Amino acid sequence: MAGNSIGTLFKLTSFGESHGEGLGGIIDGMPSGVAVDLDFVQEELDRRKPGQSAIVTQRKEGDRIEILSGVFEGKTTGTPLAFLIRNENQKSKDYSHIKDTYRPSHADYTYDQKYGIRDYRGGGRSSARETVARVVAGAFAKMYLRQQGINFSAFVCQIGHLKLEKSYQELDLSLTETNNVRCPDLDLAAEMESYVKDVRKEGNTVGGAIQCVIQGLPTGLGEPVFDKLHADLGKAMLSINAVKGFEYGSGFEAISMKGSEHNDAFNTDFSTQSNYSGGIQGGISNGEDIYFKVAFKPVATLMQKQTTVNAKGEAVEMEGKGRHDPCVVPRAVVIVEAMAALTIMDHYLRAKSYQ
Amino acid sequence: MAGNSIGTLFKLTSFGESHGEGLGGIIDGMPSGVAVDLDFVQEELDRRKPGQSAIVTQRKEGDRIEILSGVFEGKTTGTPLAFLIRNENQKSKDYSHIKDTYRPSHADYTYDQKYGIRDYRGGGRSSARETVARVVAGAFAKMYLRQQGINFSAFVCQIGHLKLEKSYQELDLSLTETNNVRCPDLDLAAEMESYVKDVRKEGNTVGGAIQCVIQGLPTGLGEPVFDKLHADLGKAMLSINAVKGFEYGSGFEAISMKGSEHNDAFNTDFSTQSNYSGGIQGGISNGEDIYFKVAFKPVATLMQKQTTVNAKGEAVEMEGKGRHDPCVVPRAVVIVEAMAALTIMDHYLRAKSYQ
Amino acid sequence: MAGNSIGTLFKLTSFGESHGEGLGGIIDGMPSGVAVDLDFVQEELDRRKPGQSAIVTQRKEGDRIEILSGVFEGKTTGTPLAFLIRNENQKSKDYSHIKDTYRPSHADYTYDQKYGIRDYRGGGRSSARETVARVVAGAFAKMYLRQQGINFSAFVCQIGHLKLEKSYQELDLSLTETNNVRCPDLDLAAEMESYVKDVRKEGNTVGGAIQCVIQGLPTGLGEPVFDKLHADLGKAMLSINAVKGFEYGSGFEAISMKGSEHNDAFNTDFSTQSNYSGGIQGGISNGEDIYFKVAFKPVATLMQKQTTVNAKGEAVEMEGKGRHDPCVVPRAVVIVEAMAALTIMDHYLRAKSYQ
Amino acid sequence: MAGNSIGTLFKLTSFGESHGEGLGGIIDGMPSGVAVDLDFVQEELDRRKPGQSAIVTQRKEGDRIEILSGVFEGKTTGTPLAFLIRNENQKSKDYSHIKDTYRPSHADYTYDQKYGIRDYRGGGRSSARETVARVVAGAFAKMYLRQQGINFSAFVCQIGHLKLEKSYQELDLSLTETNNVRCPDLDLAAEMESYVKDVRKEGNTVGGAIQCVIQGLPTGLGEPVFDKLHADLGKAMLSINAVKGFEYGSGFEAISMKGSEHNDAFNTDFSTQSNYSGGIQGGISNGEDIYFKVAFKPVATLMQKQTTVNAKGEAVEMEGKGRHDPCVVPRAVVIVEAMAALTIMDHYLRAKSYQ
């Protein structure tokens, strides 16, 4: 109940602080007999890693994963799969200046209020570095689900005012990983990259959005009435640092639509002609693509002077130090996919109890 | 795990079908010693009730609540509080024509796929009538939380293209319940009502949006990293029938904002000058107002001819019968409040274990 | 977390007080498509019912079950199955004399301490009448499991000093239901019945024990390391009113055994020659019979004068009124079976997620 | 649901195999601000450690704990507390001879049936070495609870036929740790030690029992009706390797007692004159001592020839190799205390939500 687990039959419990010994987690419920592809796990981690391109934070983190249990002779055993990623290049002293300072729109104040203690080094537990555990667990979920033909494709669909207007069906999603911003529209990607560089030059940051498409899903996943598939996907996305909104299928556009436009007519093979439902009806997958969008706020740490308060309530001046992202979405693409994979994996196993 | 419970320390388990014996639920975790205000519960139910105005479904449902346990001499006892609302005016034969038909954008097909059986009368379990249980549980949560000074105010902020442009601070939220659409801007409310009537005349339906504001919340509610307060609010909202999207604080607008605009500067009493954070930082309440928006799709049942398929995959014509809402948001206002109250109540009790 | 649910994939949430409106529960996770045999459910309730023989309480309770949801056209739908048993013959005034009195070895004092309020009528929620909900849920679990060839046979194996010395293999368990004490050894049963009558004449009560045998179980049920099959069976049994101990397989006798005696040698078909393991190894069923024993204390309500205290801490005299059991085990046989069935059902569904 | 977590508000999720990289766990729900006494944790681990005396296994295991997260500047932060104990002296080749063999009364066969794969080295996940994680989590629970005045004292009360007849009140429990068998009756302890040595000389093993006393507990812990305090204690104990039975208070002796003997009369300060209830009434602590007993079977690994089968169902001869315990109870004392502490800690935090 203390909030560090997600999932029921496929459950990730994560641990770790940005500047402690390391981060990691335990996956409980990994099916046995799955061949473990550690290179794939590492590739996924590398997609999230700082320092991978000119438009992300230049911190260097090795992010090498060590599997501690649950694998024997290259296969999963069905027992808890624990993993650890040691912190290596953490510069705690970069944070000594904020020891007694509450940074605006960070979690410094709320953690202090809740716990009466605060690991101020890099945000401690509230740091987005915590998401490495999610990426690892997501990689294991994908490893299993791709055997069932289920695939996850996330990509950046907006940075600042630069918005991808094409639908995902019009795009070649294999281009996502070919550019630094991870947008499959290469012209727009170039614009976005240039824009992010400008933003960084001002010492500023900017928000963004990621779309995710899940393909190859069978019908029947999702547990009404509270654990509807999109409700669990939404919670998973909203639990990612900096996320402010979630919509699936027609999303917020449904507000101004009429029923006669919005209804997805059936074909005689039970597929649908349109897919405003986003692959989910009544909380249960219908076999069509699931697609959803996630909104991220601009990073709160600025390379500009800001006025804020310290723990005594005194006004103080502060300026970001260290190495920070001007925009989180390029590195968050793999996190969105991971959280989607965790959620689908959990519902996949849950659905098996009905068969 | 079968999906009909929500919450941890304050948990609602709901049951019932739209045309079965009745609907109801069990609240486990209701604190003891709370004076039970059944009139209030009934008022809340009446806010959701069909037939309450010209722009909602004209079905007549008594929706009288019976408390089955957990109350003794007018006070809660701390034991499970079970309640039952009998179905009264259900016309099952209104649905015999869809027995073998999968209605577009309904849950008919997915339920049949998942369970191999389908209670076709009024959608059975997938009917929005299931939300009566939520309204009751929400009323009990509110009953407790208002003693702590915590209040919930939801209202309609958009129907079709008619969008409320004022912020909630500029409005008198006590006007919400004075009009049929439940929009606190009375001019806009009149426009909306007229628009919904037009839509109904065409036999059509339209989407809408609801905003909800939570005031009087203490700091410290929310459990990082997965049970962030807004993640649980989001899941609760997304579990409501017809919901397609959720955003809190700056929401989707954060995408195009810069950090320098978006950061909420602290005052020396730790309140913030702006509130793009929506009252939550790092997943934990910071004492500011929480506000969020929920998008609803247009109702799928149309009073128009539609082509669809039956369970054999044959194309069939169908037309909505019975009595349906042209737009769900006026009746959903109390449901949004209820789900918000359930979520806050759960986190309120969870936070107590730290004190 | 408030303790009124048991199970994960097959979950019972129960409600009700002995003298309130009624008792009941919600089963969440009942598989769909199971033909509902309500006569069987009623028969099971009748095995628990007061007034069924000369040696149990002479209270009259109709204990008629009403199904509120989850069944359509005689079959389960996979949605929550709610049920209600109205209280009928409750004589609350039988309890007015104990309104301010804490009865020895009852839950009066502890409920008052925990909740600050106490429904004194017949023990309220702490009454063993709460077990009707368990019997109903157990009946539904049995209904499903008997289709898989899994059967539950509980019987009284001790009352006071009268102990069944034969093993269950030496007995004809079909004789259990032929006598009032529910002991399959008819000579011993007659002795036990006579003994219970003597105890009742003194206005006294006596303890007892029940053995339960589960047959036809597949291998592979149970989730190490914490949800071992016998750990969940043990918890289920210990949650029954008046239970003081649980042992399975060799149980407490294993203490004085040597490994060379206790080890169960394998046959070449992987069955075992002996079964000290009680059908469970490493927390997982091995396909042999599961058998366990449950110890019940003597009923705390005596038809004798006792000195006790009231809520102010003043010494008061009291004497049991109303109609009480001199020994609970005859009526508890079906409860033990029900809790065993719930536990096995839950693990049966859990095991399916591995297949 | 995969069974490797225990607790709700104070939750341990454990991982690790006896011959893998290591074992450990995550404690989620550790209150913040507790001064961490790592020496105490290590002392607790040392009480469980192999090789500590002449009557336990002579394996050498360093069992050095590393804290990975959740502690900052010597205090707990309220975030997940992860820990790791690396395996050091594991001799996997000691087990190569059993690679394809199912050892009698071990979990080899059932794990293979359940998971289709088996880490045969030292039992893998089914090894009692898994309990190191429990001891660590128990140490943290004790660290918090001793500040509340709550203490745990377990001791060996029976080995084979040698049974402690005195009640715990007649004993000086501080003597428990002064002898190799951990029995506070020093004469009996000497007899037990000598007996265990004899058993070991035969290459045999023997069962035993442990009693545990919890003192200083407030009233009000335990959540009826399913999460009764003794039901959760029972489950916790039954989840320990080799446990066959659990009883609390009067336990199995209650079977042959009459109500007039068994009832615990109140004093005017609400304490009770006797304590057959074992400190728990209606599933809720009443402020008296909680005491219970746990039965352990004899270790299944014998230093004698045994006939068994291999995975093909062929009869094979085998003999234990490696270094094994002739009797588990001396090393299990700290495990029983740990599981008791975990359970009490969880209910302590749960009870706070009522205050």
From TrEMBL, chains A, B, C, D:
<comment type="similarity">
    <text>Belongs to the chorismate synthase family.</text>
</comment>
<comment type="pathway">
    <text>Metabolic intermediate biosynthesis; chorismate biosynthesis; chorismate from D-erythrose 4-phosphate and phosphoenolpyruvate: step 7/7.</text>
</comment>
<dbReference type="GO" id="GO:0008652">
    <property type="term" value="P:amino acid biosynthetic process"/>
</dbReference>
<keyword id="KW-0521">NADP</keyword>
<keyword id="KW-0456">Lyase</keyword>
<dbReference type="GO" id="GO:0009073">
    <property type="term" value="P:aromatic amino acid family biosynthetic process"/>
</dbReference>
<protein>
    <recommendedName>
        <fullName>Chorismate synthase</fullName>
        <ecNumber>4.2.3.5</ecNumber>
    </recommendedName>
</protein>
<keyword id="KW-0285">Flavoprotein</keyword>
<dbReference type="GO" id="GO:0004107">
    <property type="term" value="F:chorismate synthase activity"/>
</dbReference>
<dbReference type="InterPro" id="IPR035904">
    <property type="entry name" value="Chorismate_synth_AroC_sf"/>
</dbReference>
<comment type="subunit">
    <text>Homotetramer.</text>
</comment>
<feature type="binding site">
    <location>
        <position position="323"/>
    </location>
    <ligand>
        <name>FMN</name>
    </ligand>
</feature>
<keyword id="KW-0274">FAD</keyword>
<keyword id="KW-0028">Amino-acid biosynthesis</keyword>
<dbReference type="GO" id="GO:0005829">
    <property type="term" value="C:cytosol"/>
</dbReference>
<keyword id="KW-0288">FMN</keyword>
<dbReference type="Pfam" id="PF01264">
    <property type="entry name" value="Chorismate_synt"/>
</dbReference>
<comment type="function">
    <text>This reaction introduces a second double bond into the aromatic ring system.</text>
</comment>
<keyword id="KW-0057">Aromatic amino acid biosynthesis</keyword>
<feature type="binding site">
    <location>
        <begin position="125"/>
        <end position="127"/>
    </location>
    <ligand>
        <name>FMN</name>
    </ligand>
</feature>
<dbReference type="GO" id="GO:0010181">
    <property type="term" value="F:FMN binding"/>
</dbReference>
<dbReference type="InterPro" id="IPR000453">
    <property type="entry name" value="Chorismate_synth"/>
</dbReference>
<feature type="binding site">
    <location>
        <position position="282"/>
    </location>
    <ligand>
        <name>FMN</name>
    </ligand>
</feature>
<feature type="binding site">
    <location>
        <begin position="241"/>
        <end position="242"/>
    </location>
    <ligand>
        <name>FMN</name>
    </ligand>
</feature>
<dbReference type="InterPro" id="IPR020541">
    <property type="entry name" value="Chorismate_synthase_CS"/>
</dbReference>
<feature type="binding site">
    <location>
        <position position="48"/>
    </location>
    <ligand>
        <name>NADP(+)</name>
    </ligand>
</feature>
<feature type="binding site">
    <location>
        <begin position="297"/>
        <end position="301"/>
    </location>
    <ligand>
        <name>FMN</name>
    </ligand>
</feature>
<dbReference type="GO" id="GO:0009423">
    <property type="term" value="P:chorismate biosynthetic process"/>
</dbReference>
